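Hi,

I'm pasting everything inline rather than attaching a file, because the server keeps stripping attachments. The sequence lines come first, and each chain or strand is labelled.
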Amino acid sequence: MITTDILIIGAGPTGLFAVFEAGLLQLKCHLIDALPQAGGQCSEIYPKKPIYDIPGFPEVLAGDLVDNLMEQIKSFSPGFTLGERAQTIEKQENGSFIVTTNKGTKHQAPVVAIAGGLGSFEPRKPLLENLKKYEDNGIAYIIKDPEVYRDTKVLIAGGGDSALDWSIFLSDVASEVTLVHRRKEFRGALDSVEKVQSLKNQGKIRLITPGEVTALEGDKKLEAVTVRKNTTAVEDMRIQVDHFIPLFGLSPKLGPIADWELEIEKNAIKVNTFDYQTNVPGIYAIGDVNTYPGKLKLILCGFHEATLMCQSAYQRIHPDKKYVMKYTTVGGVIGFDGSKKEAPKAVVKAID
Amino acid sequence: MTDIKIRITDREGVVHEIDAPTDMNMNLMEVVRSYELAPEGTIGICGGMAMCASCQCYVKSDHELPEKSDDEEAMLAEAFNVAENSRLGCQIHLTEDLDGLEVELAPES
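And the predicted assembly:
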């Protein structure tokens, strides 16, 4: 059991900044995120896009913003459960909550802050007959253990970085790698595209473009797929495969949180604007995942919401303590790792 | 004239005839959201960066539209339910030339 003061669901910019504000109040945080890395949409969808409305940053790349936030919260030593989706929540008799992920990891905290953005990112699945039948029976959307593919025939579909990178990686592991994409152009890092080109020239990757997987077959497990080659003469090819890996990106779904008996409106969690608490005391919702009159889905609003949430969480965790907000220019930043950042003392010296 | 008429068929097949402003720097996806023709969280997920295809629509009238950018082409190549007349609503900037535009929202995926 992982225990902490504030359990944050979602490691996007809002969730990360909540760690900082909680840290100033000497509250510890642990974050859960379905993605394998922190940063939420900023890392997953648009790391290279500049953002222009972060106060004090005339321009900052989304990926750099995440790096900066990670640096800012480092001394508060947050814990992370990454690559797991928060699945269930149970209220305990002592008022705390236990949140269990889809992989069974349990977390306990007196306060839960949902900073889930638009939800957890789920793989986008192609529209194919019998798709369900072959899931985990030859079809996987996420590559967990590349060794599974050793000396097998693999077909990857998609045109982005992950399709390119995994084709390159698996060309050394699998006995056969076929990459299928609907057009000749790929959207990925230039060196990945060039590497695939050279592996294709060496005969290590079979490239079918423009093409599309149109049918699946196999008795109990996937045995072959039909790929329609969309050149001037349409051609259907039957390709024997052991594994089919569709990599069409991820799309966010509110997911299990929708069943947590929280009030939901327009795919978002209703909160009050006093402390961003939901209808369940002790569960807060901050950032893009919440809604209230006048809500704006902006990172800067998420930062504000995270700050007020932490003040309320402090009162909840320490009902008997009196507390006055302290500026970082006055109190500095005292990390849980023993570090201390503070303003340098002014020099006091007489001038003769 | 600053408003144009657009006919939008939503994902349930209901046709909406709406007035859309051309002087507010809006795109088609934003108009759909402003009239709430698709539930929040199911359209415009990436905010309009041509990076999610949640605003895919089929253009049914023969208006001349701006060419697709590389980003839009690439995204449509990875989206589902794509047809010849598919476009990303977020990449269609509303101008007076688009008066009478008819589109249908693609299914959620």
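The two ends of chain A are 64 Å apart (CA to CA).

If the labels don't parse on your end, tell me and I'll reformat.
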